[in-house]
Amino acid sequence: MLDSHDMLSCKSPSRAHRKPLRRIACGVAVALVGALCLPTEASNGDIKQPKDIMQLADIQLTEKQEYCHNLITFKESSNNRHAVNGSHYGYYQGKSKALKGAPDDYQFYWYWSYVSHRYGTTQYDEPDYCKALHHLRVKGWQ
Which of 23, 66, 112, 139 lies in the 20 to 30 Å Cα band around 52? Predict the structure, then answer.
């Protein structure tokens, strides 16, 4: 039975739970339900973590935005997460020391935020990497 806080309890409306065997059975039932709700070791392996920035882009972006994103990372750093050019670091050559040696997912979401704020988002609420790529080409940086 669920109590007023949506917690599983052994109290019955009729207070018939006072019998010792019923109390033990109710305790066992609560323990079983709790155990069934715990994650198992096998379930931890079901979620595959992306291995690199290209997989993140493939998972998170539409094909068009993924294409533009991948062109940017190739032109900026040759897809090298440790790329350095003066005070610019990482895949996207961002001017932030936090990107120096940062993991792929950190760099990906850092650039996600940067592009979203600077160039806007698409109808699918993803950063408009194609506008960012257009800007880089207009400036002659690509």
Answer: 139
